[in-house]
Amino acid sequence: WSADEVTVIFVLGGPGAGKGTQCAKLVSDYGFKHLSAGDLLREEQDRPGSEFGEMIKTYIKEGTIVPMEVTIKLLENAMKDAREKDKKSLFLIDGFPRKLDQAHAFEKSVVPSKFTLFFDCPEDVMQERLLNRGKTSGRADDNLESIKKRFRTFVETSMPVVDEFESQGRVVKVSATRGPDEVYEDVKTNFKERGL
Ligand code: UP5
Ligand code: MG
């Protein structure tokens, strides 16, 4: 695809920064198709007959990053579906790319992103949110041990992606510490400035 046919915005931020929450708001106001890489991996994990199920399970529990061939394929398939069935051309890709090679591969082989929406949030705030969600989410990685591992992977492996995009002037950074509605006001202001 070319960037004229398809608009992709990457949505990044640490575990529990509020990526999913903000994407849901953007979907109802702007008509984006929201694709969470984590959600797609969890669906694939639970799909009967998936050859990747066990592998995905282990990576998620350990807070490490699933090989990109799997994730990019899932994203590409979901994008194709949304384009064909729902005529969607605006995409929020949530929680991806988490590693520099993934960023390079996606922008080369699928489509370049318009920009990255980055939610900036301190670890203590994210930890509290995740532990709280863990009471009801049923997510295998919403426990203190997995959360610590996710934070580490985020700092060591995923922040370099944000830093590289930032150095290219392609990051919209929003502070994610306030309530969901306040954060969303900032998001909308930034989208307006970027012509959306
Ligand atoms: N909440 C949200 N916003 C709030 C606010 N402003 N104020 C107060 N509370 C707020 O929110 C988390 C919780 O906080 C919720 O309870 C919410 O109500 C509350 P959410 O919107 O879900 O945050 P989000 O950033 O989406 O958190 P999530 O846990 O989904 O982030 P992760 O990045 O950790 O999870 P993801 O699903 O993206 O990935 C999971 C794993 O999949 C990864 O660790 C990795 O192992 C694997 N993965 C890959 O390998 N490759 C990929 O490309 C993607 C994932
Ligand atoms: Mg999420």
Structure explained in plain terms:
58% of the residues lie in helices and 14% in strands. It has 196 residues and is an alpha/beta fold. Strands 2-3-1-4-5 form a five-stranded parallel beta sheet, sandwiched between helices. Helix 1 crosses helix 8, helix 2 packs across helix 4 and helix 6 crosses helix 7. The model has no long low-confidence stretch (mean pLDDT 98). Bound molecules: P1-(adenosine-5'-P5-(uridine-5')pentaphosphate and magnesium ion. The site of P1-(adenosine-5'-P5-(uridine-5')pentaphosphate has 30 residues, from helix 1, helix 2, helix 3, helix 6 and helix 8. Magnesium ion binds next to helix 1. Catalyzes the phosphorylation of pyrimidine nucleoside monophosphates at the expense of ATP. Plays an important role in de novo pyrimidine nucleotide biosynthesis. Has preference for UMP and dUMP as phosphate acceptors, but can also use CMP, dCMP and AMP. Monomer.
Key words describing this protein structure:
Adenylat/UMP-CMP_kin, alpha/beta, 196 residues, 5 strands, globular, 14% strand, nucleobase-containing compound kinase activity, binds P1-(adenosine-5'-P5-(uridine-5')pentaphosphate, 8 helices, P-loop_NTPase, 5-stranded parallel sheet, binds magnesium ion
